[in-house]
Amino acid sequence: MTQVLTGLDDQAISYVDDVLVFTKSASVDDHIANLKTVFDRFRSYGLKLSPKKCILATKSLSFLGHTLDGSGYKPERDHV
C-alpha cells in the first residue's frame, strides 16, 4: 500500500491495508478532491474497495485503538 500511495503523503496514510484519506482544511470540496485522487490511484493499480468497510467524510473515527478528529488523536476510553 505504501507504493500505491507514494507522493500522496499530504492526503493519505496507510497501515497494512487500512487507508486514511484526510484534508487539512475544513473544505468539503478539498476533501472530495483528495478522495478522488486516492480513488484514481487505487484504480490505476487495479485495487477495489469494499463499500461496507468504508467510512467517508467523517469528522471523527476510531483507528488502531485511538479516536482521531480535527483536534488530534487520543486513546479510546476502553484502551486506557
TrEMBL record:
PROSITE patterns: RT_POL. It comes from Bursaphelenchus okinawaensis. This is Reverse transcriptase domain-containing protein. Residues 1-68 form the Reverse transcriptase domain. Pfam families: RVT_1.
